[in-house]
Write the structure tokens for this entry.
Amino acid sequence: MNIENRLVEFRRFMAEKGARLSLIWEPDNQFYLSGFRAISYSRPIVTAIGEEMAEMVVPGLEELHASDKAQVDKLHVYHEQLSLRDKEVSYLGHLSRLHKKYPAGSRVGVELASLPANVYIYLKEFGFELIDIGEKITAMRAIKDASEINLLKIAGKLSDFAIEVSLKHARVGVSELEFDSYGDKFLLEIASKEYPEELIGYEDWTCSGARRSVMPHLYSSTRKFVSGDVVIHSRQVWFNGYRAENERTFFVGKPSEQQKDLLKLAIEAQRVGMELIRPGITAKEVDIATYRVFEKAGYGEYVNHRVGHGLGLSEHEEPYLRFDNDLILQEGMVYTIEPGIYVPGLGGYRHSDTVILTEGGSFSITQYPREIEHLLFD
């Protein structure tokens, strides 16, 4: 990650807005601008970007980790050990010293969407003029550079491996959790072998049967597959922080002709979206085009979500592919394309793939077969 270049661009934005200090709270934004990510933020962590220095306030248990990973000029450590009670025991103490360098009336950048309300009040009481910097960081994160795209490609490849292995075990009597575990185990084994000393993680869930699959986001359960089930398997894999999403809908046992038609319809809607998305069109055009496929077939009322979301450091990232988003898409943006329909009594149907926008159009970094003949299991 080229943190230095990111800070140069961000400080240029701060100068344009007259902000002398910015306080970053959202964890993925902190990682983007510092290279540091903690497991937990229940103990507050703050990244402070000034006109010349980048500093970070961390709890004592993160001091060594932050010293190793955070690309900042200075760390400020607060403590919660009885033996160190004479040291600073509150992040607010360090924060106070940081912002007291600036006179009342100074502009301070904050992420209004994620700044804790008590900190907002605290800063306002000191007389600062608060401006939103969240949209700028969102815009920066939306355009991936070559190094980020390389990480995403690896994540996509690993997700394909994991889905392929899980699907080899799609059969009557296997629980959703067991089904996930086959791909999980293989993912961890191959990643450890091929990418030593790297950070790799995953998240997955499986919704099986007509009742569960119509609820798009459910954790995997101990429910076992039965003959005739429609199943949605969703998987995200991240490599050094960058995520690829990969989902497939499949059948265990023989589906009805209507169920097969519904999956074919979802596949067609996804094909339309993946062929359409490219730099220069608006985000809403992709959503509307895929919705029209369902609407034309008489299933528009069974669509209950947008066609896709941005992807990168977060599970879901702005900007979104929604019918009301006039954003013009740009090269380097990364999106999921996942149109779905959810028909009571017949189940849910959704594939998701991760696509990267290029000068000439787009390409998918997830490649597991999408056609129905590859998604029928006894």
Notes: The chain has two domains: 3-141, 143-377. The chain has eleven helices and 17 strands. The chain has a mean pLDDT of 95.
